[in-house]
Design brief:
The chain is globular, with a radius of gyration of 26 Å. It is an alpha+beta fold and 656 residues long. The longest helix is centred in the last third of the chain and has 19 residues. The protein has twelve helices and 32 strands. Strand 7 and strand 8 form a beta hairpin. 16% of the residues lie in helices and 34% in strands.
């Protein structure tokens, strides 16, 4: 067995137990944050608990909000800095929804403002000039154009679904024929009565798109009504090479704040709409998830983001000159609570196929020793129009592999986003980099990557593994049939593609437009069969080459890359006598969504690659003396993610 030490803290179990924070929103006066926190209880029964919490922006301290735990949406009421409105499933399991209002200064009080006879989502509320509130949600539309409760809808005794168009499945579910969603609205009022305050929805919900065939993709509320997007989006002829992801107007309407991806990060930019100057960067580092105005003057923004070492990061950014920023909260203490640091992560560039340079992340173990060689783990991202970015990644966290004793390299191969339009695509969305080269230029980049890494004195190039998911899984299968596949001791294919031609007919997301996106020639598959076969891992001349031990991971409800491809690949390996294993999830779709399954998958993957690289397989539990030393040195946190001083003794910390 390999004698490389492994990190005693950052294991798969530690990774999935890091709390997640979502649905973050500041109140109207910029003094408090509302957010939803999920914690895992693998120490108890493997379940999850979710809490709504309120953070004091001045101190960074959080307390439980007086919001029902089952509330699936909650937000502050505008102009009411202490009032929260939430959507809560009715307790009778009817599929209906309670609208409940809470006052954080009076935790014992709550008001049932109304009952909606369906499940609704995407709540938005705006204060109107008369002091009332516009209340807007998404909901399912019935045949009569009114809100429909699909749970209580009387189901026929037969179960067949009839389709006249090819939109049949999406990700992990079937699309119900003729099911539509619309925007529904009402008015929320605050009434002052002798017995106290009362909050009420006036009347029922009204369909904003009644008597139309429109189906909205997004909406916002203005003083004059509801603005929404429906139909195809146009394309601007602007000169900015980046593509905005999220955006927010300043209160004066003259400035726009946007996020955009560039060089494996998603940063925050400021655009002066009057001067039409070049966008100015306000915040760079990691992946900015969302932008929120903090207070009413627009001089500060709240940014939610993540990095390789920050599972959830809250920062406050000044929009004036200087653009100073300060960290409000990091759920992982910038990695200190996990025993990892950003110093382990570096960026490299190597010459790829053609004349372009390829970016890659390189991650070393925290216990890295310059005098030693380490096994290599190559990770291939999905997409292919995607990238490896500096962000928290529960499904593929580079440091999890590095802490096992690997040097991890994650290349942003041809087709990756954020590295210039020519590297990914031109402005007409024709993929220059990989069009008619689905397994060409990306494969060549991987070959060049291995050649480049062979010169690294700390990498044992003859002890390498490859892991890929989705398109990355396709690439693992493609590499198996070629010479590059023999350079790996083991491979892992997650949600991959086996037979490319069959995939284009079976996948949920593949239609004529998608095929044109990647391949020239006829849009009819059998008329373009030669092109598809050119990059097909299941080609008869390639399958006999599948000799590298491989683990295949797939979800039975995966309708993006159907599970039949995984079974076919596994059977191929078995028939060839190649060491192989199939990890199948009957209840999962395209990737794992359940934390217990994510944990199992990580453990199975590590056990598989460690077996063939010679690294110890066990998930090491620290000795008490080692843990006590680390706690004193760095102040690691315990199971409640509060300060370790709250723990009774070291043995309690040892159980995380």
């Amino acid at each position: 067995m390999d004698s490389h030490p492994t990190n005693k803290l950052f294991t798969p179990k530690t990774l999935v137990e890091v709390p997640s924070r979502k649905n973050t929103e500041p109140n109207s006066d910029g003094t408090k944050l509302l957010y939803n926190e999920t914690e895992s209880l693998f120490l108890v029964d493997g379940s999850q608990v979710k809490y709504w919490k309120v953070m004091d922006i001045a101190t960074g301290e959080s307390t439980r909000a007086p919001v029902d735990e089952k509330a699936y949406e909650a937000r502050w009421l505008p102009e009411e800095p202490n009032i929260i409105i939430a959507l809560v499933p009715c307790f009778d399991n009817s599929g209906n929804t309670h609208v409940i209002v809470y006052d954080i200064q009076k935790p014992e009080s709550k008001w049932y403002a109304g009952r909606i006879y369906s499940k609704v989502t995407t709540l938005s509320v705006k204060c109107l000039k008369d002091g009332r509130f516009a209340f807007v949600v998404y909901g399912d539309v019935g045949i009569n154009g009114e809100l429909q409760n699909t749970k209580n809808y009387r189901k026929p005794t037969c179960t067949g679904l009839v389709y006249d168009i090819d939109e049949v499945r999406y990700l992990n579910q079937y699309i119900k024929p003729n099911q539509r969603r619309s925007i529904f609205y009402s008015i929320l009022t605050k009434e002052l009565k002798p017995e106290g305050i009362s909050w009420k929805l006036l009347g029922g919900l009204h369909n904003a798109l009644a008597n139309t065939d429109l189906e909205p993709m997004a909406y916002t509320i203005s003083e004059g009504g509801i603005a929404f997007i429906a139909g195809d989006r146009g394309e601007a002829d602007g000169g900015w090479p980046l593509t905005p992801k999220d955006m927010r107007f300043a209160p004066n309407g003259k400035t726009l704040y946007v996020t955009a991806e560039e060089h494996a990060r998603v940063s925050l930019y400021k655009i002066d709409l009057q001067l039409r100057t070049k966008p100015e960067m306000l915040f760079r580092g990691g992946y900015v998830d969302s932008i929120h105005l903090l207070g009413k003057d627009g001089r500060q923004l709240l940014i939610t983001s993540s990095t390789f070492v920050d599972g959830s990061l809250y920062s406050i950014v000044n929009t004036d000159e200087g653009h100073e920023s300060r960290v409000l909260s990091s759920v992982t203490g910038h990695g200190a609570r996990l025993g990892i640091t950003m110093s382990q992560f570096s960026e490299i560039y190597f010459k790829g196929s053609g004349d372009h340079n390829v970016h890659a992340w390189m991650v070393k173990p925290s216990h890295f020793d310059e005098s030693r060689k380490y096994p290599l783990a190559i990770l291939v991202h999905g997409g292919p129009v995607s990238s490896w970015k500096d962000q928290w990644n529960l499904g593929n966290h580079f440091a999890m592999y590095a802490e096992q004793g690997y040097i991890v390299v994650a290349p942003n191969i041809a087709g990756s986003t954020g590295f210039g339009m020519e590297f990914q695509n031109d402005q007409r969305l024709t993929l220059v980099a990989i069009r008619d080269s689905f397994g060409g230029r990306p494969y060549d980049d991987l070959v060049k990557c291995m050649d480049y890494l062979e010169k690294n004195p700390n990498i044992d190039i003859n002890n390498a593994v490859m892991i890929g998911e989705s398109y990355g899984g396709y690439m693992v299968n493609w590499v198996q049939g070629h010479a590059l596949g023999r350079r790996f001791k083991a491979m892992v294919c997650v949600s991959g593609i086996f037979d490319l031609a069959v995939y284009w007919l079976e996948s949920d997301g593949c239609n004529t437009a998608d095929i044109r996106y990647f391949f020239s020639g006829s849009e009819i598959l059998w008329e373009n069969y030669e092109m598809l076969q050119r990059f097909n891992p299941a080609r008869p001349d390639l399958l006999p080459n599948w000799k590298t031990p491989m683990l295949i991971v797939h979800g039975d409800k995966d309708y993006r890359t159907p599970v039949t491809g995984a079974i076919a690949a596994f059977r191929t390996l078995q028939n060839l006598g190649t060491p192989s294993r199939l990890l199948l999830y009957p209840d999962e779709g395209h990737g794992n969504s359940k934390l217990a399954n994510i944990l199992q998958r990580h453990r199975e993957v590590l056990a598989w690659i460690n077996k063939y690289t010679g690294i110890a397989e066990e998930e090491v539990v620290p000795r008490e003396d080692e843990l006590e030393s680390k706690i004193r040195e760095k102040g690691y946190l315990g199971p409640d993610w509060g300060h370790v001083d709250h723990l009774k003794d070291v043995s309690e910390a040892n159980r995380w």
